[in-house]
# Entry
Amino acid sequence: MKRIYLDHAATTAVDREVVQTMMPYFTETYGNASSLHSFGRDARNALDASRQTVADALGAHANEIIFTSGGTESDNLALKGVGKGHIITSSIEHPAILRTCKYLEDHGCDVTYVPVDSYGMVDPGDVESAITDDTTLISVMHANNEVGTIQPIGKIGSIAKDHGILFHTDAVQSFGKTEIDVQRMNIDLLSVSSHKVYGPKGVGALYIRKGVEIEPLLHGGGHEMGMRASTENIPGIVGFAKAASLAIERSEQDTRHLTGLRDMLIAGVMDSIDDVTLNGHPTERLPNNANLRFAFVEGESLLLHLDMKGIAVSTGSACSSASLDPSHVLLALGLAPEDIHGSIRFTLGRENTESEISYVLEVLPEIVGKLRAISPLAER
Amino acid sequence: MEYSEKVLDHFANPRNVGEISDADGVGTVGNPTCGDMTTVYIRVKDGRITDIKFKTFGCAAAIATASMTTELALGKTLDEALAIGRNDVADALDGLPPVKMHCSNLAADALHAAIEECMAK
# Structure
């Protein structure tokens, strides 16, 4: 059976070119970047070049990039590293932000969670009104991982700057899919992850604007300018840098491709199936995200039927989560629990094709029809 | 979390799906807010369930347990059917993931509600 991967917001396959670039760093250039000998210097050179590449992708300087183990660590480092007093974030952040905020609340911080509208959009005005004399940090994600809504982070960055408050954004989902410029957007801290952009897992970065004082999470040797002790994962970092440069190089082409497939999928589903609604913003959304809700059916059932046809998607339904809690993002959009249960996220990738989307459009109406036929909620 | 072959079979090919228009008993349990809702319809003749149908809104476990419950109950006397419990349904499906055990309550409870309605008539 052919398999179609439409869950690129979860993770991506590593690009073959990226794998090729990484290979020598396992067996040949394997030195410790802290060593003074030639092996160490070779590793150091690779590390420095990678740092410059990632910095260029963000409009930053190389000495403002700290490599980490991924998005979660970058978010933790940003929030725990600078957050004190009062922090402002949004209600639809990734758990890496929300749970870190809960941790900080348990340790004496106050956190304001600004709401979003029905499209999942934060109002910068709400952020500004939440500012108090104690506010030290605003953290609002660039693009949401579930519904793909792109936040007005440039405006939020200006507000933070005007008030002399640090601004962090989790750009794990947006990096490589929509433009990021830390200067123009007034971003002080920014989290990115490698495995969402066809790079290896276990690598990420935190951009820290020059002059921002941050408390490290990991103490030990003086790696990463003292911000993150631990021998650098050179193969991973080199792979991440390669993936980042490919993402920037291909961004126009990828965006065109993904937007085309996304719109084909959304229009095709709407045409062939009744009672379907798009979750998230109609235009301000990631080029690869289609989050659709199918009335009268439950998402896990839909997901498993698609999986039986070789199609991989994800759902915000409570029934598919270990906690049995419905998606906090869809709840924040104001959706009723029964609508959340029927929501499916399709996230497209570089390798997806029109014929794959056609196949999805071919099998989906039958699956939804079958589930509605056994649903007591469907209109007779 | 992994489903057994039997769960996946009953999920993909649910038995006894539908409604009985002049049922002797109808039981509905759960609600869409929780993500699970099952209705069981029974027809009873001489104290025995001669026809049974169900409809479910819910996850794979909810659909499979409802389907299995109808199979277990068909042909049984009302007393025998009342004795069908959550563990019987889960066992007949070769088990359910722990987080999904509550789904087997739903199906058995809907069956019991249908039987009780029938008995009250």
User: Anything to note?
Assistant: Chain A touches chain B through 24 residues (CB under 8 Å). Chain A has 13 helices and 13 strands. The first helix of chain A runs from residue 16 to 22. Chain A has a mean pLDDT of 96.
